[in-house]
Design goal:
It contains 3 helices and 9 strands; from the N terminus they run βββαββαβαβββ. By secondary structure, the chain is of the alpha+beta class. A hairpin with a 2-residue loop joins strand 8 and strand 9. It is globular, with a radius of gyration of 15 Å.
């Protein structure tokens, strides 16, 4: 499982020109799911993500986490994180999980975030979405797990 997290001042997602999710301060999280991902990968990534000290304290030092700031998450499914571009010019997406499996794990990811008392807004799995954000910093971090461990 791969996450690309971006600290944001505000963000939203639109489907067919209609806002389906929006947050103020927090994280925009792009989530890529591959075939062998499990609940253990979700748990490892969520715990790392919500406790990363990537928000500034009063002195401007990155000492606060999403949990400390009570920030929100805009969660976006993103199968293109598993694009294979080694051959040719057209990306190959065979490493991305099949839609049924990916949607189930995506929904579980969001459910587990909410269980941590995080406000979560989402797009729609499999939909064509327009994501807007004001990247704060900018701070962008990629996280990845396999077999329930960060890699």
């Amino acid at each position: 499982m791969k996450l690309v997290i971006q600290r944001s001042k505000e963000a939203s997602v639109k489907i067919n020109n209609e806002v389906t999710g929006e947050i103020k301060s927090g994280l925009v999280v792009l989530i890529g799911i591959t075939h062998q991902d499990t609940e253990a990968d979700i748990d490892a990534l969520i715990q790392k993500m919500i406790h990363l000290r990537i928000f500034p304290d009063e002195a401007g030092k990155l000492n606060l986490s999403l949990m400390d700031t009570k920030g929100s998450v805009l969660s976006i499914s993103q199968f293109t994180l598993y694009a294979d571009v080694k051959k040719g010019r057209r990306p190959n997406f065979t490493d991305a999980a099949k839609p049924g499996q990916a949607n189930e794990l995506y929904e579980l990811f969001n459910q587990k975030l909410r269980a941590e008392d995080i406000h979560v807004e989402t797009g729609e799995f499999g939909a064509m979405m327009e994501v807007e954000l004001i990247n704060d910093g900018p701070v962008t971090i990629a996280l990845e797990s396999s077999d329930g461990k960060l890699i």
